[in-house]
Amino acid sequence: MLTAAEAAEQLGVKLGTLYAYVSRGWLRSYRRKVGRQALYRRADVEALRDLVSTERGRRGRSLPPASTWVTVAQPKGVESGAPGVIAAESAVSSIIESKLAYRGYPIEEVVAHASFEEVCLLLWSGERPVPEEIAALRAEVAGARLPSSVAAALAAVGDDAPPVLRLAAMMPVLAAWDRRQPPRTRIDRAKLIISLLPLALPLKAGELEDAPGIALRLLRSVAGVSGEKFEVQALDRVLVACAEHEFNVSTFAARVIASTGADLFASVLAALCSLSGPIHGGACDRIEALFADLAGGARLEDCLTAHAANHRLPPGFGHAIYPDGDPRAVLMRETAEAIASKKGARLFETALKVEEAVWKRDRLRPNLDFYLTVCTRMLGFPRSLPAAIFAVGRAAGWIAHGLEQYADNRLIRPRMRYRGAPLRHWE
Prior knowledge:
By secondary structure, the chain is mainly α. It has helices spanning 4-11, 15-23, 42-55, 107-113, 116-125, 131-143, 148-157, 163-179, 186-196, 214-223, 229-242, 249-259, 264-274, 278-281, 283-295, 300-309, 327-340, 345-362, 368-378, 386-407; strands at residues 2-3, 29-31, 38-40, 93-96, 99-102, 105-106. The protein folds into two domains: 2-68, Multidrug-efflux Transporter Regulator, Chain: A, Domain 2 (Orthogonal Bundle); 88-411, Citrate Synthase, domain 1, CATH 1.10.580.10. Helix content is 56%, strand content 4%. The protein has a three-stranded antiparallel sheet with strand order 1-3-2. A three-stranded antiparallel sheet has the order 4-5-6. The longest helix has 22 residues, at 386-407.
């Protein structure tokens, strides 16, 4: 048990804020048998510390046992002390002992050898596609064009709108257009969505370049570069690394919507909407802001001190699932190093300095977002595009989870723990 002063110190807040948490039902206090001093359970305070720090934009270094702060119906035999709450079973991806795998394939092997189109088909079907299937998807990507109604909606949104917002705005209009077309299978809808998502992003020169592949299309039409072999290979690796990551917030949102029987357009829309929140989807923007400050002459140490003073982790560092370091960040750093041999070396050197400084100061490793942002900016994508590139890549996983949910559907309906006023009567 902790005293009020000790609990407030653990949470990094003033006593008044601590008492506000109690009044809101976020934290329970206990009274000693003798005296009036309130005490607080250490486990409750530790669980709340990570939740409160996340609300401020600072992610905890490791997840607390979810059973300490939320009640969800769980299958029998699940250990209550395991991090997170088991809400469903999935064969799409796994994170076991900090090792990520897609359909059983280690992420290191997938990033090294697979194209993004190949990974899409792998995640959707469960098995590696044959060359003919990959070629067919690439052909569909090359021939994709926005329906006129979707193009009009995006024009109304405007090129100056946040890129992720443009991706989200496309979904309901595309769903309405699809209802007027001949019926499609869910897999065909999946291919339609993944082919059209890049077209929602503002085109560099206002023109659409034909390209047999998502990476090449993004490079030519959105970044406005030629799409040399090393650029295509690098962006393919970025998209593959982003494609899937178990039950993160956006994927869970997509899966909950799919469990209602809504179509893939609604499921992907829900996931995209979750990225509008700064805690889940704002990391790339904060990383870009850090690099902009450094390019403008700010001292790195001052920038890191400012984040610490505001109870925030350095942008792009400290992943809750990977306390010892994000394996995807390692792969993306290698990709950034390969790009730097051709272009963008100055940004890569700055990134290495940031990584070294954060490690010395906070003993934190970078996560996917950090080197995803570095890679995409080195490749020539304008500011604010890294988050959208992440969304295009992660759409492969959102769709895979939607398809899996449809195959053996049960409505996802978690329970909550009530912490309000006790039962009372109106009269």
